[in-house]
Amino acid sequence: ECNQADVSEAKSGRTDLIFLIRFRHCCLLRNQRCVLAYLYDRLLRIRALRWEYGSVLPTTIQFHMSAEEVEWFNQYKKSLATYMRSVGGEEGLDLTQDIKPPKSLYIEVRCLRDYGEFEIDDGTTILLKKNSQHFLPRWKCEQLIRQGVLEHILS
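C-alpha cells predicted for DNA replication complex GINS protein PSF1:
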C-alpha cells in the first residue's frame, strides 16, 4: 500500500521516490520467492510422507498440516492410486511395496502393539497381538512395519 501511494506521488513529479519504490518492490519479490520455496519444500515433504506412511497419515502429523496441505495430500493419494491401478494388468501394481529390494520373500516380525486379525493372500488369518512373533511374506507386512505395528527381527 505504501508503494502504491509512492507510485502515485512519483507519477505526479516526485522523482526522489523512485529508488524507494524499486527497493520495496525488490524486497516484496524476494519475500515472495522465499515463501514459494518454503511451500514447495513442504509439498515435497508431504509427498514423501505418502511413500513413507502409506495412504493414512498419523494424527500427530496431520495436526501440523493446514487444511490445504491435507487436501493436497488426499489429491496426491488419489492420483497415485489411479496410476497404480492403470499399470500392471488387472490387479494393478503397488509401487509402494518393496521400496528396498528384498533379500528373502518371508521375514520374521514381532508385533509391537495389538493390531487384531491380519489376513494373508492364501486366506490364513493371523492374530497380531503385542510381543507375538510371526513368519510372514515381506510384501504383505512391509506397510505395517512402516506404520510401526510390526518390527522386523533380524537374525
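The chain has two domains: 1-86, 106-152.
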